[in-house]
Amino acid sequence: MMGDEEEPVARKRLFHGWSQDDVEEFLEQDDAVMSQLPVSSEDRALGELDFYKRYLIQCLAKGRLGVEELRRMKDVKCEAFESYLCSLVNARQRLPLNNSAPRVPKSLMYTCDVDEHGRISYQRPYYEDGRTPLQRAFGDDKVLQVRFNCQGVTSPEMYRDIIERGFDVGLRHFEYFVHKEEKKRKNMRKVKQTRQQRSFFVCTKSIAASDLVDPHFLKFRSMDACRKYIMHIHTVPCLQLYNKRLQLALSKTWTANHDPGGEIAVGCNGKPLIHTDGTGFISEDLAKQVAVNTSEEYPALLQVRLFYHGIAVKGTLLTLKTLQHKTIVYRDSMLKVKADPKLANCPSFNSLEICTTSHKPPVASLSRYVIALLLEGGVPESFFIQVVQEAIAKAMTPLQDIAAAHRLCSRFSFGDMPRRMILAGIPLTDHFLRNSLMTMIRTQLKRYAKANVPLEGSYYLMGSADPTNTLARNQVAILLENGPLHRHKVLVYKHPGMHPGDVHVFEATWNQELESCLGNSKYVIIFPTKGPRSVVHEIANSDLDGDLYWICTNEQVSNLYKPQLPWQEKRTNGTTAVPSCLGMSPEVIMSRLVAMFLRAIFKPNFAISRAATNWLIHMDKYLSTSFDNVREREFRQNCLLELADLYYLALDADKTGEMVTIEDRLLCDKIKPHFLVEENSNNPNRRKIQQQDNVYRSTSIFGKIYNLVTEVIENEAKEFTGPLMFYEEFVYGNYLSYKDLWRQHFNNYRLEISLALDEKSAEKTDEIAAQYCQMLYTGSTNLDGAKKSIYQIYQESCAIYSVVHDHVQFCLDRARAGSENEKEWKPSFTFAWKVAGEPLCHLFCERRKESGGTFSVARDVLDTITGAPGALARLRRF
């Protein structure tokens, strides 16, 4: 029951970090509240809007709107606000924010960039899959992601003031929370001089009227109080761990239960249980609460982040049938931040956050690392060549098989239009469709060139520790779709293990004790807990906090492989410098954290990447060296072992504080194998690259696989993609009368898209296409919201196709005639299918003359029937 008794608690929650006197003074004196409002009438009017509108105004129209215009914006709906503002200030309108999959959690991301002169440029908000605990605790609009551009900046001091003091955005004040190294995206080019670092700023206070009257707006006296609301971070003993533990709030998660409730049991005191490092237990009833997007009753294993009254827990939870209801058991090794008893009565963020759960795994792929280790263990080179050849043949089947082509399109974000074309009955020999399929196939083949080739009988599973302590040291329990696996010999490895002993051989077994604890659990590997040392620690220095293990049950591989001696941790040349932060003032800690952040940007340690690159080059030369050359092989082998030790040490350097350096005697990356140089080069001329002085032609299995795949890619690129047909289905009505209009539009589009491609801006190309969609449909970017009649849209769409067809035919004729610059002629139907693809598919499907005609089918039903990954794959991530 809500009453007067709860009001002080609510006040205390809203003003976390404020003294009781401060709260009473602030809330009881209306004049004091109003005095914090902006002085100017424009800012007062701006403060009456919600933050999303204020932020967009700062992005697009700062200082360009009057008081009356700002007040009229209060009545504009948020979903229509961006287009309204763009039309008001004559800004380029982008595609609408796409949040079309409501079952998939999305967050609205606010980002800005700080250039080399300290100027801040704000980017328009966009939706991103998933949400972090940081966003869930404070709200999407109170977390700002900031990137600092250090290109051309000689001194980091110019950024220090911005980071330490924070800055104002939309009448809110944002302060630095934490930074984290950005994971390399698939389409992101490698940055040679700097590492990509993301910093996160959190709103601590506001002077906007809409925020001051919002009962749910969290206000903080300082960033120190803000951090303590998430976890009692001041109990962490050293700065390296301080920053690392704050990053726990940045994992993409979903909430199982906002307040975990029930019983939170703690593991044994003293030293962490090394055999169970990172794993705990959860009762079956709680596990069922997160059994979403899976066909199982509950997940066997959950990777979690637990925030509860100031503590922060990281690791995995194994579902136990024997555990009492509403119980979570975590071990000391999982407890990353302890609670401060002095803050027991302070409000805190309490939530069990799920990063991922065990689920049915797809077929796993090989890698250069695991291939090298398997070769060392006795698996012949010919086996891998055969696997690659079979994978290439399978990858090319979508060019002839409609079902395979449909499945391929379902796996790519840009495959929606080709998929529509296939379902409409457009032949696979169509110029645009075949080129689109080849683009997707080429993406797969490029992975194969890096030896990332699927291997039947292999998959990735999360691991946990044996809760019964009955498994022998050479045994594991592997639970798959059809129950426990019984196999005399299986291989287990964790990427990117570099030591020959990182591939372990186990017997897959099962027993009655495990049956009573785990029941019908699926998709998890259970490791033994016997022996003087954890077996997972022997596998690439791993633990059980969510690491994925490569499991190989392929009998050809497991029967040929001979186990090697396991990896032993060695002391290296790393130096430790971990200052304690206990007793430091919040101001000093903030200054030290900022210094760490600036050092990460301007003086990064590339020990991880250098160790990995040089290990790969040494391995390439080791595999290419004759067995007769004993001295050379021994030298390479010693270098490989040392680099593996350094690599594992560097992986933990951000937690241990060790400064890892790679000695010059271990470096060999001045002359690289051709496959490494070509992969990272924009120059398509392979022959020219291989003639460079700093490149040698690899003859190892890596070079052979690379050459095998790239030859297929080059041969397919040279092949003609079939006859250039004009379909009779697109001869519709009086479409010729619209050709002059759309020929002019097409010429304008080519000029605009050429400039956008020069700038390498994917967002601009989408915006340009959206403009021409608006011209075709009027009032919408798709057929559903079109204001024109469908009859006119069909005619204009056919005119668009005809115009583009004429242009492509002209380009092909010029190329065949031997144009001096054949590369200049790159015919493409992209404009036709990107702008008018939807009505063209409708028209083609309607006018097909098969006796069976056509019928409608829901997309999720079609995905289920055809086996396309579709929605289930997207949902499984969350």
From TrEMBL:
Signal peptide: none annotated. InterPro entries: RDRP, RDRP_core. Belongs to the RdRP family. PANTHER family: RNA-DEPENDENT RNA POLYMERASE, RNA-DIRECTED RNA POLYMERASE. The keyword Transcription does not apply. Probably involved in the RNA silencing pathway and required for the generation of small interfering RNAs (siRNAs). This is RNA-dependent RNA polymerase. Residues 119-707 form the RDRP core domain. Its EC number is 2.7.7.48. It comes from the Eukaryota. It catalyses: RNA(n) + a ribonucleoside 5'-triphosphate = RNA(n+1) + diphosphate. Keywords: Nucleotidyltransferase, RNA-binding, RNA-directed RNA polymerase, RNA-mediated gene silencing, Transferase. One of its GO terms (biological process) is siRNA processing. The lineage of its organism: Eukaryota, Viridiplantae, Streptophyta, Embryophyta, Tracheophyta. The keyword Nucleotidyltransferase applies. GO terms for cellular component: nuclear RNA-directed RNA polymerase complex.
